[in-house]
Amino acid sequence: MAEVKRVQIPRVKLGSQGFEVSKLGFGCMSLNGTCNSPLSGDEGVSIIKDAFNKGITFFDTADMYGANANEVLVGKDTQHCVSSHQAGLALKHLPREKVQLATKFGVARWEPPHLSVKGTPEYVCSCCEASLKRLDVEYIDLYYQHQVDTSIPIEETALHPRFRRENLEKNKNLYTRVENLAKKHRCTPTQLALAWFLHQGNNVVPIPGKTKIKNLDDNIGSVKVKLTEEDL
């Protein structure tokens, strides 16, 4: 496993307005159990404070995560968590001016496998105001569209096709290749995957979610994995 102690996480600028973030971000979707078992408040606060102390300053959430609950628990302190089973990060625990907070709009309804999107100006404005209130902040550093509103029926769109049942056998061969390359670089497959993203240019910032400190450290270790052109 790549060493994670004293890893200096680079800073990069997104877009053309000088918006600077940590090269490795933190995806908050898993904090309140969107796709996993929810964390306790103490566990959530612990992992996010640990991430910040290790150089991760870019935190990403969305209004659709946990039916709006994720923004509440990201924005408020643990005493105001919407559930005892949900983790809370208060920006009040961290210096707001040193945190880059991103949230998203665009998904009007998500009941897997059904997804509906909306992008009218009125809807965007109402979503932004609601996010500011839930996050309990005066401004959002990065506000962007989660899903583009198109006229294509959702039934015609395959969401994450690589992970559909019919592709599982093909994925086994891919994983073997990834595992062998990870062994070559003496890192974990997760670190290798993140390292690939980190080598795609300074305008690409991965935002992996994590619920355990050991996985956070594993992710941070990806910063030290150097891939060759042949690897890529």
TrEMBL record:
GO terms for cellular component: cytoplasm. GO terms for molecular function: oxidoreductase activity. The keyword Ribosomal protein does not apply. The keyword NADP applies. Keywords: NADP, Oxidoreductase. Residues 23-158, 166-231 form the NADP-dependent oxidoreductase domain. Gene3D superfamilies: NADP-dependent oxidoreductase domain (3.20.20.100). PANTHER family: AFLATOXIN B1 ALDEHYDE REDUCTASE (PTHR43625), OS01G0618100 PROTEIN (PTHR43625:SF81). This is NADP-dependent oxidoreductase domain-containing protein. The lineage of its organism: Eukaryota, Viridiplantae, Streptophyta, Embryophyta, Tracheophyta.
